[in-house]
Amino acid sequence: MARKRSFTSQLYRAARISNDISSLSSPTRAGRRAKNIALGRGLGRAGVWRRLWK
Fold first, then answer.
1. Sign of the C-alpha dihedral, residues 23, 36, 38, 12?
2. pLDDT reported for residue 1
3. Model pTM greater than 0.70?
C-alpha cells in the first residue's frame, strides 16, 4: 500500500512535472532534461545520494 504524500510533497511533485512539460517546448531543452532525469535516477538507484549525505 502506498504512503499518502504530504501537501508540500504533492506541490513539489506538481512543480517538477510542470517544469518537465514546459521544457518539451524546445527540442534541446527536452533532450537535456531527459538526460538529467535519467542520470539522476540512475545515481539514485546506485545509492550515490545516500552515501553523499551520510
1. negative
2. 61
3. no
